[in-house]
Amino acid sequence: MKPFNIHITGVGGQGIGLLSQALLRGIDHAGITAIAVDTHGLAQRGGIVISQIRCGDGVHSPLIMKNRADLVLGMEIHEALRGASLYLKKGGTLVFLDVSWQPLSVRLGQTPEITLENVETACQISGAKAIRVEIKTMDDARMQNMALLGAVSKNALIPGVTKVHFDAALEDLLSGDMLKKNRAVFDAWAV
Amino acid sequence: MKKTGEVLMGKDPFEEIFMGNEAVVRAMIETGTKVIASYPGSPTPEIAAAILSIPEDQRPFYFEFSVNEKVATEVAFGAALNGNLSCAFFKSVGLNVALDSFVQLSLMNITGGMVVVLGDDPGANSSQNEQDNRNVYRMSRVTVLEPSSPKEAYEYYKHAAALAIKEQTVVVVRLTTHVCHARQKIKFSAYENPAPSRTNFSRANGPYIALTVMALDMKRKSIQKLKRAGQYIRQAGLNTEIKSNNSRNKGIITSGLTFLSLLDVFELSSYRPDILKLGAVNPLDPEVILAFLHSHKEILILEELDDILELQIKALAYDHGVKTKVIGKTEDEDFVGEYTPDKTRDKLSAVWPDMVIPSPASPALLFPVPPRPAQMCPGCGHRSAFFAIKKALEKEDVTVADIGCHTLGYMPPYEIGEVLLCMGASTGIASGLSLFNDKKRVVAFLGDSTFFHAGLPGLINTLFNHHNITLILMENGTTAMTGHQDHAGSVIPVENLLKGLGVESILSCDTYSQSKLTELVKTSMAVKGISVVIAKHPCMLKYSRQKRKQPGFVQTHVDIDPEICNQTHDCVERFGCPTFTRKPDGSVTTNLDLCIGDGSCRQTCPEKAIVFGKEAK
Ligand SMILES: Cc1ncc(C[n+]2csc(CCOP(=O)(O)OP(=O)(O)O)c2C)c(N)n1
């Protein structure tokens, strides 16, 4: 398989770790070689969290070169735009949650908040495909990551990886009530 | 669900996706590592997390969080003198703390063998610098293996253990941030039974006292040991040459994750130089390197951070009259930051412009996205503390920060903490600032884990030398920044210790009592000599995670009552909880994904517009 690069980004506390591990294990269950890495700075919360996954043949470092991601997943709107600007390749796909966790300077009234229009315009200009994931109906914010996973599965965004593979991945990672709840969200967004 | 602890303890060979840090723990188990000690710090805390995922009664080894890295090193050393294979692990700057003991290790006959796993942090992702610890290894005469991937981290730890046992010495496994945190599928070997515990200490195995003439004899022996380590490295084939069929007589010497960056750049190259990948970065193997130099016309030494390999290899080439052109670092930037695939490509394009196929122009950043600095969490007791303390400070007062979550107080809107060095340095720096100084009152901050780690000597110095400072101890009951590891404060209450030391002025309150804290700080700052304020509140990230797991838990939150709010914006601009969201029309709402309903913000609103949400009623 041709190399395929996924850049996942959001804010600490959004559950990027689980999303990234589910994707990595899903890819592995599909029989594709993969390597991944998380980059989280100082903070448990409130800072930018990045996870990168690279799979296919001829893939070595877990780190993706700038503008070479086939797929960017944004858990938060500022980070979605930042991640896409830095990493998305021409013609790549950005999947994002329309959720805003305002950075400090926005809250201090020094810079404007990034909007849905900003992201859509940016994608249009740079020829990227934008998929917005609607999550208004979800009541537990900590499972927003599963909605994003659902969207990846539904749109068959990773070549060769399908829902059964992600199902198996979730079973590796979770059990009991947590598995049930996360699965329910994943299933709902995967169809 | 695959439970990490169970998988790690599996008897049969298996394949599993693991992080570098987790893979190292399997290697510890397979090699019979018997005593492990650590002090938390990124990029290595997941080693401890993986260890703790094994129930204590099933662990085939003893594990402790020591009070600091120096003590961790000493505990591991002592245990190894009994004949037990031991390990200490910690982050890059932890070696500075451990150094006084660490430099002695190679002089010692460590009968059980000892491995030190060190996580360097190129790029300073989560450290106060990106120091290259390879600078210390020559002085310390230790063997250093450097894996490039999680798979190699597992294999190299096993080599390190074997060599440490064979030579009765210390061996370092040098990890870097993105090797620690990379994940890949790894094939693991079988694990038989726990290693027996030994208590074989005998001074006949020594000498263990490196004084006067002994120190020189012991040094001579350590030189011999390092030479024998070189033989082990050769036999184990840790330095490998990767030959290309279109190298154009060029070669690259590299190590660690930079090796993988290089392979990625090769995927975009018109030709590929041969590679000499060094699995051991100390000692270097002169024969292998000379052979590689001799068989190429041009050699690039591609190494992250400092020019450690370069200087040694150039000296070797000079001594042997090698005519090969040796290229190393040429720009200041070559010394800075991680050698990511991008940076490696740029370096190669600069050295051999015809080699790398130019990459497509990057699309311009279409919208400037505001930066996102790290923040204290919603409900964080440190935030209430800074909000309250700011009211007690005068403009000319000097505030000295220390390491921990409370370091983040230096940012707006609090801007408390104007100087920072390293763990435990605040009281010493503050004492210096207080000399010849009647104008500016000096306040030092210290976290509770740091207090025990390296804060005590500085504090005792203030008593001994009668310095005039106020110390604010930010007590949250845990080592928060690195992931909530336990610390000595759970056994030794901070306040008892301060009293025992003879600190006369000790004031204390919960940081959520903001007005009281303001008053206490004012009172404390009026005291001549050392005065301490303990500003306590449990870490709310830890607390809310625990609470969420309890049955019947209901998440509460606060709302802003739009009827009462008249947009003074103290909540967003002065208290600065990330929960508050500012709308373009100036109104403020709460982000329900973030709010934990602690209500510490309510007292900060002059209009009392912050109210508990309906769940609380
Ligand atoms: C020598 C050294 N060891 C470890 C670290 C990693 N480290 C960064 S913050 C921190 C936590 C300090 O805990 P504490 O003093 O209790 O402050 P808190 O984060 O809980 O506010 C640690 C251990 C470091 N920076 N330097």
Task: Give the structure's gist in a few sentences.
With 191 residues, chain A is an alpha/beta fold.
Set out the fold topology:
The complex is a heterodimer of chains A (191) and B (617).
Chain A (H helix, E strand, L loop, with lengths): L3 E8 L4 H14 L4 E7 L7 E8 L13 E6 L2 H11 E10 L6 H4 L8 H11 L2 E5 L10 H11 L8 H11 L2 H15 L1
Parallel strand pairs in A: 1-4, 4-5, 5-6
Antiparallel strand pairs in A: 1-3, 2-3
Helix pairs in contact in A: 1-5, 1-6, 2-4, 5-7, 6-7
Chain B lengths: L3 H5 L5 E6 H12 L3 E4 L6 H8 L9 E4 L3 H13 L4 E6 L2 H9 L11 E7 L13 H7 L2 E3 L4 H18 L2 E7 H4 L1 E7 L24 H23 L3 E4 L7 E6 H11 L7 E5 L1 E3 L3 H9 L3 E5 L5 H12 L5 E3 L13 H11 L29 H12 L5 E3 L25 H9 L7 E6 H17 L5 E6 L18 H8 L3 E6 L3 H13 L4 E6 L3 H9 L9 E3 L9 H6 L4 E3 L5 E3 L19 E3 L5
Parallel strand pairs in B: 2-3, 2-4, 4-5, 5-7, 6-7, 10-11, 10-13, 13-14, 15-16, 16-17, 17-19, 18-19
Antiparallel strand pairs in B: 1-8, 6-12, 9-11, 20-23, 21-22
Helix pairs in contact in B: 2-3, 2-7, 4-5, 10-13, 14-18, 15-16
The structure holds thiamine diphosphate (TPP).
What structural category characterises the helix and strand content of chain A?
A: alpha/beta
How many runs of DSSP E, i.e. beta strands of chain A? 6
Unreliable residue stretches of chain B: none
Q: Helix proportion of residues of chain B, in percent?
A: 25-40%
Q: In order across it, which strands form the biggest sheet of chain A? A: 2-3-1-4-5-6
Q: What's the CATH architecture name of chain A?
A: 3-Layer(aba) Sandwich
How many helical stretches of chain B?
20
Number of domains of chain A: 1
> Which residues of chain A form runs of ≥5 with pLDDT under 50?
none
Give the C-alpha Rg of chain A.
16 Å
If you consult CATH, what is the topology of chain A? Answer: Pyruvate-ferredoxin Oxidoreductase, domain 3
**Superfamily (CATH H level) name of chain A:** Pyruvate-ferredoxin oxidoreductase, PFOR, domain III
How many DSSP-defined strands of chain B? 23
Classification by helices and strands of chain B: alpha/beta
Summarize the biggest pleated sheet of chain B.
7 strands, mixed
